[in-house]
Amino acid sequence: MSSVRLTILGCSGSIPGPNAAASGYLIEADGYLLGLELGNGTLAQLQTVRDPFDLDALLLSHLHPDHCADFSALTVLRRYHPDPPYPRRPRLLPVYAPEDAPSRLANAYAPNETERAATDLSDVYTFHPLSGDPVKIGPFEIAAVQVDHPTPAFGLRVTYDCRTIAYTGDTGPCESLDELARGVDVLLSEASWTDAPDRPPGVHLSGKQAGELARRAGARRLLLTHIAPWTDRGEVLAEAVAAFPAAVVVEQGAVYDV
Protein backbone atom coordinates (compact mmCIF):
# COMPACT_ATOMS: atom_id res chain seq x y z
CA MET A 1 0.00 0.00 0.00
CA SER A 2 1.48 3.35 -1.05
CA SER A 3 1.73 6.17 1.46
CA VAL A 4 0.48 9.72 1.28
CA ARG A 5 2.98 12.46 2.09
CA LEU A 6 1.87 15.66 3.83
CA THR A 7 4.29 18.61 3.79
CA ILE A 8 3.76 21.72 5.90
CA LEU A 9 4.62 24.86 3.92
CA GLY A 10 3.17 27.14 6.59
CA CYS A 11 0.99 26.85 9.66
CA SER A 12 0.75 30.29 11.26
CA GLY A 13 -2.83 31.22 12.05
CA SER A 14 -4.62 34.34 10.79
CA ILE A 15 -1.40 36.13 9.80
CA PRO A 16 2.16 35.03 9.01
CA GLY A 17 4.44 35.10 12.05
CA PRO A 18 8.15 35.88 12.38
CA ASN A 19 9.83 33.67 9.74
CA ALA A 20 6.57 31.71 9.63
CA ALA A 21 4.25 31.45 6.65
CA ALA A 22 0.48 31.27 6.95
CA SER A 23 -1.55 28.23 5.90
CA GLY A 24 -0.15 26.06 3.13
CA TYR A 25 0.29 22.31 2.64
CA LEU A 26 1.27 19.77 0.01
CA ILE A 27 -0.35 16.35 -0.28
CA GLU A 28 1.44 13.90 -2.53
CA ALA A 29 0.72 10.34 -3.66
CA ASP A 30 1.39 8.28 -6.76
CA GLY A 31 3.53 11.09 -8.22
CA TYR A 32 0.66 13.61 -8.02
CA LEU A 33 1.21 16.88 -6.13
CA LEU A 34 -1.86 18.55 -4.66
CA GLY A 35 -1.55 21.99 -3.08
CA LEU A 36 -3.84 22.77 -0.16
CA GLU A 37 -4.11 26.50 0.64
CA LEU A 38 -1.61 29.17 -0.43
CA GLY A 39 -1.49 31.76 2.34
CA ASN A 40 0.97 34.59 2.93
CA GLY A 41 4.56 33.41 2.54
CA THR A 42 3.79 29.91 1.33
CA LEU A 43 4.96 30.38 -2.26
CA ALA A 44 8.43 31.25 -0.95
CA GLN A 45 8.38 28.09 1.18
CA LEU A 46 7.11 26.00 -1.73
CA GLN A 47 10.14 27.07 -3.78
CA THR A 48 12.48 25.68 -1.12
CA VAL A 49 11.09 22.15 -1.50
CA ARG A 50 9.57 21.89 -4.98
CA ASP A 51 9.28 23.67 -8.29
CA PRO A 52 5.90 25.45 -8.13
CA PHE A 53 5.24 24.21 -11.66
CA ASP A 54 5.17 20.70 -10.16
CA LEU A 55 1.72 21.46 -8.70
CA ASP A 56 -0.90 19.32 -10.41
CA ALA A 57 -3.89 21.01 -8.74
CA LEU A 58 -4.70 23.45 -5.94
CA LEU A 59 -7.41 23.29 -3.26
CA LEU A 60 -8.54 26.41 -1.36
CA SER A 61 -10.85 25.85 1.61
CA HIS A 62 -11.90 29.50 1.71
CA LEU A 63 -10.74 32.89 0.52
CA HIS A 64 -9.39 34.71 3.56
CA PRO A 65 -5.90 36.08 2.79
CA ASP A 66 -4.03 33.82 5.20
CA HIS A 67 -5.23 30.91 3.06
CA CYS A 68 -4.88 32.33 -0.46
CA ALA A 69 -2.84 35.57 -0.48
CA ASP A 70 0.02 34.03 -2.47
CA PHE A 71 -2.34 33.06 -5.27
CA SER A 72 -1.57 36.38 -6.95
CA ALA A 73 2.15 35.66 -6.79
CA LEU A 74 1.56 32.20 -8.26
CA THR A 75 -0.38 33.89 -11.07
CA VAL A 76 2.61 36.13 -11.87
CA LEU A 77 4.90 33.10 -11.88
CA ARG A 78 2.71 31.04 -14.18
CA ARG A 79 1.93 33.95 -16.50
CA TYR A 80 5.32 35.63 -16.82
CA HIS A 81 8.04 33.07 -16.10
CA PRO A 82 10.45 33.36 -19.05
CA ASP A 83 10.83 29.60 -19.43
CA PRO A 84 7.74 27.82 -18.10
CA PRO A 85 7.79 24.04 -18.58
CA TYR A 86 5.14 23.99 -21.28
CA PRO A 87 4.28 21.75 -23.06
CA ARG A 88 5.90 19.29 -20.63
CA ARG A 89 3.45 20.45 -17.95
CA PRO A 90 -0.17 21.52 -18.50
CA ARG A 91 -0.49 25.27 -18.91
CA LEU A 92 -3.76 25.56 -16.99
CA LEU A 93 -3.68 24.66 -13.29
CA PRO A 94 -6.94 23.22 -11.91
CA VAL A 95 -8.14 25.17 -8.86
CA TYR A 96 -10.90 23.82 -6.59
CA ALA A 97 -12.31 26.58 -4.38
CA PRO A 98 -15.54 28.32 -3.30
CA GLU A 99 -17.65 29.33 -6.28
CA ASP A 100 -16.78 33.05 -6.12
CA ALA A 101 -13.04 32.33 -6.35
CA PRO A 102 -12.63 33.38 -10.02
CA SER A 103 -13.92 36.92 -9.39
CA ARG A 104 -12.42 37.41 -5.93
CA LEU A 105 -8.97 36.16 -6.90
CA ALA A 106 -9.04 38.21 -10.11
CA ASN A 107 -9.88 41.29 -8.03
CA ALA A 108 -6.97 40.56 -5.69
CA TYR A 109 -4.61 40.21 -8.64
CA ALA A 110 -5.91 43.19 -10.63
CA PRO A 111 -7.41 45.74 -8.20
CA ASN A 112 -8.59 48.29 -10.80
CA GLU A 113 -11.22 47.97 -13.53
CA THR A 114 -8.83 48.60 -16.43
CA GLU A 115 -6.51 45.79 -15.42
CA ARG A 116 -9.38 43.42 -14.57
CA ALA A 117 -10.87 43.97 -18.01
CA ALA A 118 -7.70 42.57 -19.54
CA THR A 119 -7.59 39.38 -17.48
CA ASP A 120 -9.94 36.87 -15.93
CA LEU A 121 -7.16 34.39 -15.03
CA SER A 122 -8.53 31.88 -17.54
CA ASP A 123 -5.16 31.81 -19.31
CA VAL A 124 -3.58 30.41 -16.14
CA TYR A 125 -6.24 28.41 -14.28
CA THR A 126 -9.36 26.32 -14.66
CA PHE A 127 -11.70 26.90 -11.71
CA HIS A 128 -13.96 24.23 -10.22
CA PRO A 129 -16.43 25.17 -7.44
CA LEU A 130 -16.40 23.11 -4.28
CA SER A 131 -19.72 21.53 -3.38
CA GLY A 132 -21.10 18.65 -1.37
CA ASP A 133 -20.43 16.20 -4.19
CA PRO A 134 -17.21 14.13 -4.04
CA VAL A 135 -14.72 14.90 -6.79
CA LYS A 136 -11.75 13.00 -8.18
CA ILE A 137 -8.53 15.04 -8.35
CA GLY A 138 -5.70 12.94 -9.74
CA PRO A 139 -5.47 9.83 -7.54
CA PHE A 140 -7.36 11.51 -4.68
CA GLU A 141 -11.04 11.37 -3.78
CA ILE A 142 -12.03 14.74 -2.30
CA ALA A 143 -15.13 15.34 -0.20
CA ALA A 144 -15.97 18.88 0.90
CA VAL A 145 -18.31 19.84 3.74
CA GLN A 146 -19.40 23.33 4.66
CA VAL A 147 -18.13 24.52 8.02
CA ASP A 148 -18.88 27.43 10.34
CA HIS A 149 -16.87 30.53 9.43
CA PRO A 150 -17.72 34.14 8.54
CA THR A 151 -17.10 33.53 4.82
CA PRO A 152 -18.09 30.47 2.74
CA ALA A 153 -15.65 27.80 3.93
CA PHE A 154 -15.16 24.06 3.58
CA GLY A 155 -13.56 21.25 5.48
CA LEU A 156 -11.88 18.80 3.14
CA ARG A 157 -11.50 15.03 3.32
CA VAL A 158 -8.75 13.67 1.06
CA THR A 159 -8.63 9.91 0.45
CA TYR A 160 -6.07 7.82 -1.42
CA ASP A 161 -5.85 4.01 -1.35
CA CYS A 162 -7.75 3.65 1.96
CA ARG A 163 -5.75 6.42 3.63
CA THR A 164 -7.55 9.58 4.61
CA ILE A 165 -6.55 13.07 5.73
CA ALA A 166 -9.28 15.38 7.01
CA TYR A 167 -8.56 19.10 7.07
CA THR A 168 -10.88 21.37 9.02
CA GLY A 169 -9.95 24.60 7.30
CA ASP A 170 -11.08 27.51 9.49
CA THR A 171 -14.22 26.81 11.48
CA GLY A 172 -15.98 27.00 14.76
CA PRO A 173 -17.47 23.83 16.27
CA CYS A 174 -20.23 22.40 14.06
CA GLU A 175 -21.87 19.04 13.35
CA SER A 176 -20.27 18.69 9.92
CA LEU A 177 -16.81 18.40 11.52
CA ASP A 178 -17.71 15.06 13.08
CA GLU A 179 -18.73 13.75 9.67
CA LEU A 180 -15.54 15.15 8.15
CA ALA A 181 -13.18 13.60 10.70
CA ARG A 182 -14.83 10.22 11.31
CA GLY A 183 -12.25 7.40 11.34
CA VAL A 184 -9.50 9.34 9.54
CA ASP A 185 -5.83 8.43 9.64
CA VAL A 186 -4.84 12.07 10.16
CA LEU A 187 -6.94 15.01 11.32
CA LEU A 188 -5.23 18.26 10.36
CA SER A 189 -7.13 20.65 12.55
CA GLU A 190 -6.93 24.34 13.14
CA ALA A 191 -6.53 25.34 16.79
CA SER A 192 -6.26 29.10 16.67
CA TRP A 193 -6.61 29.86 20.36
CA THR A 194 -6.95 28.47 23.85
CA ASP A 195 -10.36 27.58 25.19
CA ALA A 196 -12.41 30.31 26.89
CA PRO A 197 -16.15 30.96 27.31
CA ASP A 198 -15.96 34.38 25.66
CA ARG A 199 -14.51 33.21 22.34
CA PRO A 200 -16.73 34.39 19.47
CA PRO A 201 -18.80 31.58 17.92
CA GLY A 202 -18.46 30.49 14.32
CA VAL A 203 -14.84 31.48 13.78
CA HIS A 204 -12.18 29.06 15.10
CA LEU A 205 -11.49 26.00 17.26
CA SER A 206 -9.54 25.90 20.49
CA GLY A 207 -6.98 23.24 21.31
CA LYS A 208 -9.54 21.61 23.60
CA GLN A 209 -12.20 21.55 20.88
CA ALA A 210 -9.77 20.09 18.33
CA GLY A 211 -8.78 17.34 20.77
CA GLU A 212 -12.38 16.53 21.58
CA LEU A 213 -13.22 16.39 17.87
CA ALA A 214 -10.39 13.90 17.22
CA ARG A 215 -11.51 11.73 20.14
CA ARG A 216 -15.18 11.69 19.11
CA ALA A 217 -14.28 10.95 15.49
CA GLY A 218 -11.90 8.10 16.29
CA ALA A 219 -9.02 9.72 14.40
CA ARG A 220 -5.66 7.95 14.55
CA ARG A 221 -3.57 11.14 14.72
CA LEU A 222 -4.25 14.80 15.38
CA LEU A 223 -2.01 17.44 13.81
CA LEU A 224 -2.68 20.94 15.15
CA THR A 225 -2.17 23.89 12.84
CA HIS A 226 -3.22 27.53 12.32
CA ILE A 227 -2.12 28.68 15.77
CA ALA A 228 -1.97 32.47 15.80
CA PRO A 229 1.45 34.06 16.52
CA TRP A 230 0.07 35.68 19.69
CA THR A 231 -1.24 32.37 21.05
CA ASP A 232 0.83 30.10 23.32
CA ARG A 233 1.41 26.92 21.29
CA GLY A 234 2.22 24.94 24.44
CA GLU A 235 -1.10 25.81 26.04
CA VAL A 236 -3.01 24.87 22.88
CA LEU A 237 -1.19 21.54 22.73
CA ALA A 238 -1.82 20.82 26.42
CA GLU A 239 -5.56 21.36 25.90
CA ALA A 240 -5.62 19.02 22.92
CA VAL A 241 -3.53 16.30 24.58
CA ALA A 242 -5.86 16.27 27.59
CA ALA A 243 -8.62 15.10 25.25
CA PHE A 244 -6.54 13.25 22.66
CA PRO A 245 -3.05 12.11 23.72
CA ALA A 246 -1.81 11.54 20.14
CA ALA A 247 -1.95 15.27 19.33
CA VAL A 248 1.09 17.21 18.08
CA VAL A 249 1.62 20.75 16.82
CA VAL A 250 2.91 20.82 13.24
CA GLU A 251 6.07 22.70 12.30
CA GLN A 252 6.84 24.57 9.10
CA GLY A 253 8.85 22.31 6.82
CA ALA A 254 7.77 19.10 8.56
CA VAL A 255 6.82 16.08 6.46
CA TYR A 256 4.37 13.42 7.62
CA ASP A 257 3.77 10.04 6.00
CA VAL A 258 0.17 8.91 6.29
Task: Please describe what this structure looks like.
The protein is an alpha/beta fold. The protein has a single domain, classed as Ribonuclease Z/Hydroxyacylglutathione hydrolase-like (Metallo-beta-lactamase, Chain A, 4-Layer Sandwich). Helices cover about 25% and strands about 25% of the residues. The chain is built from eight helices and 14 strands. Strand 7 and strand 8 (about 140-145) form a beta hairpin. The mean pLDDT is about 95.
CATH architecture call: 4-Layer Sandwich
- Assigned CATH superfamily: Ribonuclease Z/Hydroxyacylglutathione hydrolase-like
Describe the global form.
globular
Average pLDDT taken over every residue: 96
Structural class call reads alpha/beta
CATH class division:
Alpha Beta
Please, how many helices? Answer: 8
First and last CA, distance: 11 Å
